[in-house]
Write a structure and sequence with these properties.
The strands form five sheets. A five-stranded mixed beta sheet has the order 3-2-1-9-10, sandwiched between helices. Strands 13-12-11-17-18 form a five-stranded mixed beta sheet, sandwiched between helices. The protein is an alpha+beta fold. The longest helix has 16 residues. The N terminus is likely disordered. It folds into three domains: 141 residues, Nucleotidyltransferase, domain 5, CATH 3.30.420; 91 residues, ATPase, nucleotide binding domain (Nucleotidyltransferase, domain 5); 69 residues, ATPase, substrate binding domain, subdomain 4 (Actin, Chain A, domain 4, Alpha-Beta Complex), CATH 3.90.640.10. Helix content is 39%, strand content 27%. The chain starts with a helix and ends in an 8-residue tail after the last helix.
Length: 341
């Protein structure tokens, strides 16, 4: 009896945390409060002392604009930790920022990770969260978290497909009875689209632009499907020939061509997953269709592109950016019925 009372008291004093540790953005869900933090996965450090100077939005604003003594780093690459020490500092910052300092006990942390993560990468995530102040670290696959956050009936004996297009990876999974039946994970996502735009502008206009500019182009005029009214945008950068600043105008048609390769990779991954899906569940997908989540789901026409290539109904989840984070929060409420990593 005393142990039960202690556990109840302990839960009151420590809020569990769910983390969508994304390549581009990280979101934190606090049990009982919802999503309380959404910031870029960027850390600014002093190159000499390695001291952390800024994290999140403040650090992202330094990208491409830092002096020689400051370096803005993205510690995650293609969905996994590339710099363990910097990632640990970032996770600690997020935990300290959202965790109520009046709490006595350290929080349990549930981290969403790519389904194709290796054992080494798994250990890096767990070690980073553990050293950053977690009482217990658990993992959940991103497609499962995205499906839960999107409101799919993952506990039912029928097939549901989720396509989570993140910054560094795209996760495609068919889920039934609280488990992933078939899945594919590719290291292609929003960052790949940004890089493709950057290369296109460099090749076509001899103009050098940075990752922030290419991301803005994607957000403002990017598409994967012809638009009813095509868009244009002024782009500023450095002329490769003269070395001086220059402004050009690019169109949505051009950007559509630029992102064609990463979009095609995503579509092919969806098709490959469908081809390996058990026949019974394939029949379910005709009725249920495909649900898109993640920031990449906001690319204009991506739902139409996938629908045209698969002959399935494709819908975009409500608030696709928050699906994974919300999924970790819902999973925290039912850890006994959700398949964790």
């Amino acid at each position: 009896m005393a142990l039960k009372v202690f556990k109840k008291f302990k839960n009151l004093l420590s809020n569990d945390i769910g983390i969508d540790l994304g390549t581009a953005n990280s979101l934190v869900y606090v049990r009982g409060q919802g999503i309380v933090l959404s910031e870029p996965s960027v850390v600014a450090i002093h190159t000499g002392t390695k001291k952390v100077l800024a994290v999140g939005i403040e650090a992202k604003n330094m990208l491409g604009r830092t002096p020689g003594t400051i370096e803005a780093i993205r510690p995650l690459r293609e969905g996994v930790i590339a710099d363990l020490e910097i990632a640990e500092e970032m996770i600690r910052y997020f935990i300290q920022k959202v965790h109520n300092r009046r709490k006595i006990f350290q929080p349990r942390i549930l981290v969403a990770v790519p389904s194709g993560i290796t054992e080494v990468e798994t250990r890096a995530v767990k070690d980073s969260a553990d050293r950053a102040g977690a009482r217990e670290v658990m993992l959940i696959s991103e497609p499962m978290a995205a499906a839960i956050g999107a409101g799919l009936p993952v506990d039912q004996p029928s097939g549901n497909m989720i396509v989570d297009i993140g910054g560094g990876t795209t996760e495609v999974a068919v889920i039934s009875l609280r488990g992933i039946v078939e899945w594919r994970s590719i290291r292609t996502g929003g960052d790949s689209m940004d890089a493709a735009i950057e290369r296109y502008v460099k090749r076509s206009y001899s103009l050098l632009i940075g990752p922030r500019t290419s991301e803005n182009i994607k957000i403002n005029i990017g598409s994967s499907y012809p638009l009813q009214e095509e868009l244009t945008m002024e782009v500023k950068g450095r002329d490769m020939n003269t070395g001086v600043p220059k402004t050009i105008v690019v169109t949505s048609e051009e950007i559509r061509d630029a992102v064609n390769e990463p979009v095609t990779n995503i579509v092919e991954t969806v098709r490959n997953t469908l081809e390996r899906c058990p026949p019974e569940l394939s029949g379910d997908l005709i009725d249920h269709g495909v649900v898109l989540a993640g920031g990449g789901a906001l690319l204009r026409g991506i739902d139409l592109t996938i629908a045209e290539e698969t002959n399935l109904r494709v819908t975009i989840a409500e608030e696709p950016l928050y699906c994974v984070a919300n999924g970790t929060g819902i999973a925290l409420e039912g850890l006994d019925v959700i398949e964790l990593g």
